């Protein structure tokens, strides 16, 4: 009855694609460092000779200081570049305001003419069985009202909260933004294609924290 799903989310936005590329980039350095350490440990453990008079070597100390410094620079530069790039919003076409509340979400879509506000509540098991979405198998993730946005469009999402701290998180879009009472946080993203994307509140906000799903549909 239920369809098969991949273990990992597929990248659906330019943000998460850059995150995956940076992850692979840093894993190259991590693999090199671990391999080098393992080789040294094996050689030291299998070597039968030891020099008890060997106390210092200036060239060796310079090498093991300079090489880690360059590795950190090669990792820090793209990390800071992507960090500021993700916060950059260049002429967003669509702006969506997200309010976190115990325990549901309120969305406000703004365009040039008017803004529309609607609440999004999770579907109960009985409602899910009666709907056409139950065959997908997304229990506790489907909502009665979806957040609808266009794909291939720069979208700016403003988040805040009406009561306690929440967190608006959609993993396959690379979105995770805290919703804090009295404060507006902003995140921009662009979805690569049409589809439905699921998320949840990522900040413990009370007894109903596990029942605050996010359902975003790109059209």
TrEMBL record:
Residue ranges the record marks as coiled coil: none
The Gene Ontology biological process terms listed for this entry are:
ATP synthesis coupled electron transport
Its recorded reaction(s) are:
4 Fe(II)-[cytochrome c] + O2 + 8 H(+)(in) = 4 Fe(III)-[cytochrome c] + 2 H2O + 4 H(+)(out)
GO cellular component terms, alphabetically, are: mitochondrial inner membrane
Give the record's membrane topology.
Multi-pass membrane protein
**PANTHER family xrefs:** CYTOCHROME C OXIDASE SUBUNIT 2 (PTHR22888:SF9), CYTOCHROME C OXIDASE, SUBUNIT II (PTHR22888)
Q: What is this protein called?
A: Cytochrome c oxidase subunit 2
Instruction: Name its species.
Output: Frankliniella intonsa
């Amino acid at each position: 009855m239920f369809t098969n799903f991949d273990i990992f989310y597929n990248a659906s936005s330019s943000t998460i694609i850059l995150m995956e590329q940076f992850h692979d980039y840093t894993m190259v350095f991590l693999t090199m460092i671990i391999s080098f350490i393992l080789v040294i440990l094996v050689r030291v453990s299998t070597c039968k000779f030891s020099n008890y008079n060997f106390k210092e070597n200036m060239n060796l100390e310079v090498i093991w200081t300079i090489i880690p410094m360059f590795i950190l620079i090669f990792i820090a530069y793209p990390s800071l570049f992507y960090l500021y790039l993700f916060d950059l919003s260049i002429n967003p076409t669509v702006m969506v305001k997200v309010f976190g509340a115990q325990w549901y979400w309120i969305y406000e879509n703004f365009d040039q003419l008017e803004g529309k506000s609607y609440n999004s509540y999770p579907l109960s098991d009985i409602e899910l069985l009666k709907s056409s979405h139950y065959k997908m198998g997304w229990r506790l993730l489907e909502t009665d009202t979806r957040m609808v946005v266009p794909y291939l469009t720069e979208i700016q999402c403003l988040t805040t909260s009406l009561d306690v701290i929440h967190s608006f998180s959609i993993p396959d879009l690379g979105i995770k933004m805290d919703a804090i009472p009295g404060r507006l946080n902003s995140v921009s993203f662009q979805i690569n294609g049409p589809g439905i994307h699921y998320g949840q509140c990522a900040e413990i906000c009370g007894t109903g924290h596990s029942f605050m799903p996010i359902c975003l549909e790109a059209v």
